[in-house]
């Protein structure tokens, strides 16, 4: 371990520009990184999962995990994103390309629809006495980002280094009525169809100050997007 740590800290980094989200085997285990000038990261996280596993049967929690993650994963892929990791009760997706922010924001609204209109009705039908409803939070940010391979031979994966990965994950900690959160950088890049909804073309996003991060501007939405 000492030798490996010394090597990592001592080796020079090599970088190359990325056009598509890489697989782990596309990057060496050395100090090599794939750089994206701009990539949009989406985290979709179950809310209250700790209380659920403490208070419900294991198989009930497993079914909630599986149904939520299955719907979220399908929607990430349907919107052109790549699934980069499953982490317990959350999923991470990366969007690249010209319309990445719009695709990711729309995906967040679609996940809200899936939870409210697909997962929870099915749960209520199957377990009418459970007194439980699935809730989720989606966080989305965009920034320059780099992908590096980490771990050991036979057990490794990609780590995403950049603001978007951290901020998207942190946004899922917010506990308000809004289910989908985007940074101002994302809001400024989404098209009008992903900003305004309903017959009156209302703004689907409400402006907030993120007190945990220097009162930076973020936007939250309670809206859904039909799938």
Automatic annotation (TrEMBL):
Cross-referenced InterPro entries: Nucleotide_cyclase
The protein's name: Adenylate/guanylate cyclase domain-containing protein
Domain of life (superkingdom): Bacteria
């Amino acid at each position: 371990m000492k030798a490996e740590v010394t090597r990592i800290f001592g080796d020079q980094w090599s970088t190359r520009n990325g056009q598509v989200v890489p697989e782990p085997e596309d990057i060496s285990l050395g100090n090599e990184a794939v750089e994206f000038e701009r990539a949009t990261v989406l985290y979709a996280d179950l809310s209250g999962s700790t209380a659920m596993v403490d208070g419900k049967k294991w198989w009930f929690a497993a079914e909630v995990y599986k149904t939520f993650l299955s719907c979220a994963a399908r929607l990430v892929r349907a919107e052109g994103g790549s699934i980069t990791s499953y982490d317990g009760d959350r999923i991470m997706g990366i969007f690249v390309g010209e319309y990445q922010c719009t695709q990711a924001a729309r995906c967040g609204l679609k996940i809200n629809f899936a939870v409210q209109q697909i997962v929870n009705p099915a749960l209520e039908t199957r377990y009418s006495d459970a007194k439980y409803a699935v809730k989720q939070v989606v966080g989305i940010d965009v920034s320059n980002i780099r992908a590096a391979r980490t771990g050991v031979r036979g057990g490794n994966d990609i780590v995403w280094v950049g603001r978007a990965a951290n901020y998207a994950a942190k946004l899922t900690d917010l506990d308000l009525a809004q289910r989908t959160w985007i940074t101002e950088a994302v809001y400024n890049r989404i098209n009008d169809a992903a900003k305004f909804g309903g017959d009156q073309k209302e703004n689907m996003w409400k402006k907030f100050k993120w007190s945990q991060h220097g009162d930076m501007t973020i936007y939250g939405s309670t809206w859904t997007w039909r799938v």
